[in-house]
Design brief:
disordered N terminus, disordered C terminus, Growth Hormone, Chain: A, mainly alpha
């Protein structure tokens, strides 16, 4: 069978709107991990002067992010394959979600002191690992709630719901804990209690808003393959890659291209708050306000681009988004001396294109996956992304060091955006050689 004509999406009957919305609620519910924790609140908090000098904390964040990515690269496809074989995709997603919630709340214990830097980075790294593994199972469920005709809209809805959920979470934290001198439950900014208490709220949020997902989605009864050991799992994975290479090399080429540009997209958000504070002088409160506006724009643009995805195809959406991001990123570097207005305008523009590229990447691959292989292929999707996930942190940190060597300035953090741009350009160059999804098929993988 071909990937396109015989894909799981071609066989899917779709789902009622309420089930689609329940699936998308997982994006809404777990968004605090990305928006609040990794990017705009804890990610910004962990690189403040309370934890050390700006270049050191930024480069430490880059190192921990890269190491977490390496772990994901090694284990994601095998765990995804396990979900396929056992049929426990929803069950695995559920316990992974609960672990994310616990780790989010555990960040409460990271006090503003250099001695707590690596505790915070360690918890953050583990949370990001579990989050990536959970994404594998979440993505694998997309063929239960969409068809080949509307997968772009469904994917865009999920990603857009995540961004919009991020707005509500950020506003709740900002007005409940961070902005008031004395917030809810008597929380103040003494000992960064406002930031730390926000992490507990994130944990509760994740548990609460993912309930609809696990009420509506259940593991489908099917014949389960016998369990295999770790070594056998990697052997089966290698056989799958070989079959992909023989039957659909364009799919593998897309995985490589998307690995590069998705790493660049991750870098935009992973280091965006750090740049806002270290280069443009944003306060933690200003970062949150920026995050609210950015998520509103990102959410609406991602949902809108989902319709465009179904109309013109995911490849074109990806190319449009990457081209815009490269130009805007260069603009941030060139005009950084212009102050906060530069980051508000150009940075906001960048957020409008990150989500569409991510959602279109997910829908492109979903159109190709045969029935019974979603966990493994989306695991491979995570692996190829994380196999190069050291590039964005390395490029960001390396560009900062290069900037210091070239200019002699003490704070050259703004050079970091050039490192991210280089990764995006590399991904764009490879994506130009990828065919449209309906031309990328081959014999495909068959369920085993």
């Amino acid at each position: 069978m071909t990937y396109d004509e015989g894909s799981a999406l071609e066989k899917s009957q779709g789902a009622p709107a309420r089930k689609v919305l329940a699936w998308a609620m997982w994006d809404w519910g777990t968004q605090p991990l990305n928006t609040v924790i990794i990017t705009f609140v804890f990610g910004a908090y962990i690189v403040t002067e309370a934890f050390g000098e700006t270049n050191y904390t930024s480069q430490s964040l880059a190192l921990s992010t890269g190491l977490a990515g390496l772990v994901v690269a090694l284990i994601a496809p095998v765990l995804g394959q396990n979900s396929d074989r056992t049929g426990h995709t929803v069950r695995n997603l559920r316990w992974q979600t609960w672990v994310i919630a616990v780790l989010a709340a555990a960040l409460f214990f990271v006090r503003p002191d250099p001695a707590y830097l690596w505790l915070g980075l360690g918890i953050l790294a583990v949370a990001s690992i579990v989050g990536e593994l959970a994404n594998v199972n979440y993505y694998a469920l997309i063929d239960e709630v969409s068809t080949a005709k509307n997968v772009g809209r469904v994917s865009g809805l999920g990603w857009g719901m995540g961004y919009l959920g991020g707005i509500v979470a950020l506003l709740a934290l900002y007005f409940g804990f961070i902005q008031p001198e004395v917030g809810l439950f008597g929380v103040s900014n003494a000992d960064a209690l406002d930031i730390r208490a926000s992490m507990i709220l994130c944990g509760v949020w994740i548990l609460l808003f993912t309930i609809p997902t696990f009420v509506a989605l259940k593991d489908r009864p099917r014949d389960r393959a016998p369990s295999v050991g770790i070594a056998a799992s990697y052997r089966l994975l290698w056989e799958s890659i070989r079959r992909l290479w023989r039957s659909s090399p364009q799919t593998l080429f897309f995985l490589l291209a998307s690995a590069l540009f998705r790493d660049g997209l991750s870098g935009v958000f992973a280091f965006g708050a750090a740049i806002a504070i270290g280069t443009f002088g944003f306060s933690p409160s200003s970062v949150i306000l920026f995050g609210v506006a950015a998520n509103l724009i990102a959410g609406l643009s991602t949902i809108a681009f989902g319709f465009l995805d179904d109309l013109i195809g995911p490849r074109r959406v990806i190319l449009i988004a990457l081209g815009a991001l490269v130009l805007l990123g260069i603009g941030v570097f060139v005009f950084h001396a212009g102050g906060q207005i530069v980051f508000w305008t150009l940075g906001m523009g960048m957020t409008a294109f990150v989500g569409p590229a991510q959602a279109a990447s997910r829908s492109y691959l979903a159109r190709l996956i045969p029935e019974g292989k979603a966990g493994e292929i989306f695991g491979l999707y995570a692996t190829t992304g994380r196999a190069v996930s050291f590039l964005s942190p390395l490029a960001f940190g390396g560009a900062i060091g290069l900037g210091h060597a070239v200019t002699g300035e003490a704070n050259t953090q703004y050079w970091g955006i050039l490192g991210i741009v280089v990764i995006l350009i590399a991904g764009l160059a490879l994506m130009l050689r990828v065919r449209e999804h309906h031309e990328a098929g081959g014999e495909g993988l068959t369920a085993r």
